[in-house]
C-alpha cells in the first residue's frame, strides 16, 4: 500500500512539474510582428527587403511587408498600421505627405543621400532640356511615360507640365515596371522616349541615359530618402527602433541590391546575399 502511495505521489509530482513547465512556456511573451510599408519602386523594394532581412535574421523578429502607393504608405505609418517605412523621399517628392502626418510620426532622418528626381531620355536623344520638348512632341509621340499615379514624382511631373506649358504632351501613368519595360523597348528600337526617373535606380547601370535639364527647378534639386516610424515602435521594439535609427547606406550600395533583383533574384534572396557580403556595414547598423 505504501509503495502504491509513493508511486501515485511520484506521478502526481511529475504531472505538476509538467503542467508548471507548460504553463511557464505558454505565458512567455511573444514578440510582436514588425510591419513595414513600402512603394513598388525598385529602390524601395531593395531597401525595404534589406531592412526586413536584418530584422528577421539578426534581431529574430517576424516581419510583414505591405506594398502600397505613397499616400497610403504615409497614412499607414501615421495610423500605426505600419511600424516603419524607409521609403520617404524628401524634401520635395513626399512633402505634402509629411505635412499631413508630421504630428503622428517620427522622422529618423536620411537613410540615403544623393537621391534625385527628373525626366530621363536615352543618351542618343538630342534634346537636353525640358524647355525644348514642345518642339519635338511628334518624335516622342506626345507622351511622358510615368509611374503609379499616387507617386510624388507624378505630382511633381504634373507641375512640370504646367510650368513649362507642355501642351503638346500628356503624362501617362503606369508603374515602375511598366516604365522600365517601355524604356527598354524604345532603346532596342532606338526610338525617342521621355520617362519619369530617379536616382538611385538600376536603369542607369543598364542603359546610357541622361536627365533633361530643369532650369525652373520644378523637380527640386538633390533629395534624400528618410526613415519614418510610428512613435509606438520605440516601446514595442526598441532594438528595431535603434537599428532603423542607424540604418544608412549609399546609392551605390542600394544599386548593388537592385541589380541583383533585376538579374533575376528574388528580393529577399538579393538582400541576404548583399548582407552576407557586407557584414561590417550591417554590424555598424546594429551597434
- Total domain count: 2
Return Rg in Å.
Answer: 25 Å
Shape assignment: globular
How many DSSP E strands?
Answer: 9
* Ends distance: 64 Å
Beta-strand fraction estimate: 15-25%
* Structural class designation: alpha/beta
Quickly give the CATH architecture of the largest domain. Answer: 3-Layer(aba) Sandwich
Main CATH class of the largest domain: Alpha Beta
Main sheet attributes: strand count, strand direction, barrel closure: 5 strands, antiparallel
> What portion of residues is helical?
40-55%
Mean pLDDT, all residues: 90
Q: What is the CATH topology classification name of the largest domain?
A: D-Maltodextrin-Binding Protein, domain 2
What is the element string, with H for helices and E for strands? Answer: HEHEHEHEEHEHEHEEHHHHH
Low-confidence stretches: 14-29
Describe the structure in your own words.
With 287 residues, the protein is of the alpha/beta class. It has 2 domains: 34-114 and 223-285, D-Maltodextrin-Binding Protein, domain 2 (3-Layer(aba) Sandwich); 116-211, D-Maltodextrin-Binding Protein, domain 2 (3-Layer(aba) Sandwich), CATH 3.40.190.100. Helix content is 45%, strand content 19%. It has helices at residues 2-26, 42-57, 70-79, 95-101, 152-163, 176-188, 203-206, 233-236, 238-246, 251-262, 267-277, 279-285, and strands at 34-38, 63-67, 84-90, 106-122, 143-145, 170-172, 195-199, 209-211, 223-229. α2 links the parallel β1 and β2 (63-67). It is globular, with a radius of gyration of 25 Å.
Amino acid at each position: 500500500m505504501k509503495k502504491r502511495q509513493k508511486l501515485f505521489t511520484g506521478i502526481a509530482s511529475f504531472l505538476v512539474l509538467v503542467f508548471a513547465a507548460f504553463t511557464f512556456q505558454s505565458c512567455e511573451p511573444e514578440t510582436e510582428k514588425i510591419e513595414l510599408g513600402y512603394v513598388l519602386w525598385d529602390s524601395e523594394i531593395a531597401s525595404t527587403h534589406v531592412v526586413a532581412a536584418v530584422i528577421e535574421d539578426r534581431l529574430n523578429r517576424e516581419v510583414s511587408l505591405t506594398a502600397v502607393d505613397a499616400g497610403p504608405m504615409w497614412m499607414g505609418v501615421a495610423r500605426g498600421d505600419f511600424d516603419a517605412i524607409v521609403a520617404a523621399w524628401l524634401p520635395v517628392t513626399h512633402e505634402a505627405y509629411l505635412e499631413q502626418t508630421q504630428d503622428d510620426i517620427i522622422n529618423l532622418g536620411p537613410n540615403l543621400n544623393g537621391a534625385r528626381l527628373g525626366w530621363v531620355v536615352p543618351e542618343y536623344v538630342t534634346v537636353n532640356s525640358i524647355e525644348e520638348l514642345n518642339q519635338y512632341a511628334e518624335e516622342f509621340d506626345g507622351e511622358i511615360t510615368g509611374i503609379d499615379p499616387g507617386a510624388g514624382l507624378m505630382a511633381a511631373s504634373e507641375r512640370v507640365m504646367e510650368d513649362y506649358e507642355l501642351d503638346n504632351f500628356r503624362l501617362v501613368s503606369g508603374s515602375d515596371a511598366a516604365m522600365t519595360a517601355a524604356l527598354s523597348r524604345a532603346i532596342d528600337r532606338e526610338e525617342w522616349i521621355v520617362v519619369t526617373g530617379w536616382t538611385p535606380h538600376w536603369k542607369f547601370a543598364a542603359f546610357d541615359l541622361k536627365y533633361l535639364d530643369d532650369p525652373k527647378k520644378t523637380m527640386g534639386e538633390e533629395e534624400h530618402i528618410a526613415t519614418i516610424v510610428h512613435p509606438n515602435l520605440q516601446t514595442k521594439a526598441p532594438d528595431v527602433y535603434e537599428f532603423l535609427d542607424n540604418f544608412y547606406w549609399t546609392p551605390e550600395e542600394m544599386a548593388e541590391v537592385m541589380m541583383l533583383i533585376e538579374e533575376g533574384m528574388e528580393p529577399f534572396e538579393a538582400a541576404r546575399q548583399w548582407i552576407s557580403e557586407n557584414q561590417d556595414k550591417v554590424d555598424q547598423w546594429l551597434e
